Amino acid sequence: MIQLFNVTKKYGSASPALDNISLKIEKGEFVYLTGPSGAGKTTILKILFGWEHFDEGQVLVQGINVGKLDSENIHTLRRSIGVIFQGYKLLTNKTVFENVAFAQEVTNRDRKTIKFKTWEALKNVGLTSKKDSFPAHLSGGEQQRVAIARAMVNAPPIILADEPTGNLDQEISLEILKLFEELNLNGVTIIFATHSQDILKLGNHRVIVLNRGKVVSS
Amino acid sequence: MSSVFQELLIGFQATIANVRSNIQTFMISVITIAISICILGFFLIIFFNLNAFFSTWNQQAQVIVYLKDDITQSNKKDLENLFKQNSIVQSIEEVTKDRAWKEFRKSQEKKLGLKLDFDFNPLPSSYRISFKLSDNRLLHISKFANITQNEPGVESIEYGENWIARFEKFMVFCRVFLMATGALLSFGLILIVSNTIRLSIYSRQDEIELMLLIGATPRFVKIPFLLEGILQGLSGSLLSLGLMLVVYYYLKSELQASTDYIASGMEFHFIPQPFLFSLVGLSMMIGFVASYVSTCQYMQVLNKK
Q1: Which of A155, A190, A206 is the last residue in one of the domains?
Q2: CA-CA distance, B301 to B305, in Å (whole number)?
Q3: A111-137, pLDDT tens digit by residue?
């Protein structure tokens, strides 16, 4: 499903952020991507959904050669991936409902479907009672659940999560992890980037360890 | 509902949200467009009125053939035959010395309040010749004047050829000036509107980035800003048309009396309808081009990441 072949990414003249990395993640797998800050976790995720270019190598996501996509057709790749960003990236001027609906609006779904799917996604993350609240009035855990609802609302086969429990306490982190595991049980491929050893211990999943842009263990 | 229609609808809602959140910048841009279109519009009004004024005078243009005091009856007959044979001549009116003097005295009395009471008549008798409307009318009149000039008994000819030629040149200059002004103002407006749209883009930077991250097409991202540019152009041009109408009716009521005096029968005209639509269209096009330039530049920056 996801394959990286000898991928190298450099930022300026500094040492490469990714150094000749090769990886394979199967369909329906739950994978932890871990390593210290600056190991290259976020860079790999950004490359997978086409937000960063890479300098060498090849990346295949669901058979799509990511390096061959340009600005006019990159959306086809991004629509098959749900992304949960560091810092949530919720729109502060939109309500919880509107934030989740927004992910469907950009894909031109009809109003009725948008309403139904948004409600369903909010139900799955337990946030229907907060649908009219603005992100500023939510706790960190609630904001993260909105971000998860937004990522899953289009039912993508892949979800990339960049430090989704980074700012949350352990109890909430466990709740969030459970949400990802439920999605994985429904066949969604999950790549979960974290540097938290506690989170790694909580789930029994494959762990890819990165350090200074190289895969240390997989 | 077709996807294009839905995209436009969502785009329009986003446009309204953009305008609401940046209402001050939007209004400044609209007012700038309105002022610029007003400048262009006033030039157009002046141009169309000068043109109408010119064609009224052109239609009224006539040749006055002044006769020598000692002209014989047979020379007069020959002249009248020459006029009648000419196909472009519409009418011939003989003005005797007495009638000319009477009319002159009357006009001086009316205009200046002068009572001319000479015991001699200094004015010559004349023919006033008017011409049919035709292509190259001025050229035909000029040829007619040259032929008549050399006829026996003719003192001089008057038909304002130089004045008409100068006015024609002036109208050509006006046309060039209008086009240059229009081009300059359009260019300036494109820069102003594109800057406003750029501000609008920067105020929604997070949203645009998120749209692209979650799979929006570049078209979906651009539509609200393109609509905003078009809306700015439309609002600006409509505002300017309103302003121009107010000024036009004011000037018309103030100046119509003077116009009647200079060229009777000539009315003040507003910009003709096709040109009005063109002004609105031009303004909307400027808004579109300006926002297109801004959004493309921004998307290029994002794509270079």
Answers
A1: A155
A2: 7
A3: 899 999 999 999 988 889 999 999 999
User: Could you give the CA distance from residue B114 to residue A119 in angstroms, rounded to a whole number?
Assistant: 94
Contact residues, chain A, for B3 at CB < 8 Å: 108
Domain boundaries defined on chain B: 3-57+165-303, 62-159
Would you tell me which CATH number, out of the four given (3.40.50.300, 3.40.50.10610, 2.60.120.10, 3.30.70.3040), belongs to the domain B62-159? 3.30.70.3040
Structure tokens at B6: 């839905």
Q: Give me the mean pLDDT over the B172-198 stretch.
A: 86
At a CB cut-off of 8 Å and minimum separation 6, what does A99 contact? A90, A91, A135, A146, A150
Name the helix (H) or strand (E) containing B189.
helix B161-203
CA separation, residue B199 to residues B84, B254, B303 (Å): 73, 43, 19
A140 and A176 in a single domain? The answer is no
Whether residue A64 sits in one domain with residue A13: yes
Looking at every residue in chain A, the average pLDDT score rounds to 90
Angular region, B157: left φ>0, alpha ψ -120 to 50, beta rest: beta
Looking at the partner chain, which of A71, A83, A108 has a beta carbon nearest the beta carbon of B299? A71
Mean pLDDT of B180-201: 85
Instruction: Say whether B299 and A85 touch across the interface (CB within 8 A).
Output: no
Best A43, A69, A106, A113 residue to mutate vs chain B (most B CBs within 10 Å): A106
B63-72, B108-117, B198-207: least confidently modelled range: B108-117
Chain A environment of B220 (Cβ under 8 Å): 106, 108
Cβ-in-10-Å burial (0-12, 13-18, 19+) of A59 comes to buried
d(C-alpha A139, C-alpha A63), whole Å? 38
DSSP codes of every residue in B44-93: HHHHHHHHHHHHHHHHH-EEEEEE-TT--HHHHHHHHHHHHH-TTEEEEE
Say yes or no: A75 and A166 in one domain: yes
Q: How confident is the model at residue B2 (pLDDT cuts 50, 70, 90)?
A: low
For residues A166-185, average pLDDT: 86
How many domains, in total, are found in chain A?
Answer: 2
Judged by CB atoms closer than 8 Å, whether chains meet at B220 and A108 is answered as yes
8-state DSSP, A64: E
From A87, A86, A64, select the one nearest A74 (Cα to Cα).
A64
My answer on whether A103 and A197 are in the same domain is: no
Q: Which domain holds residue A97?
A: 89-155
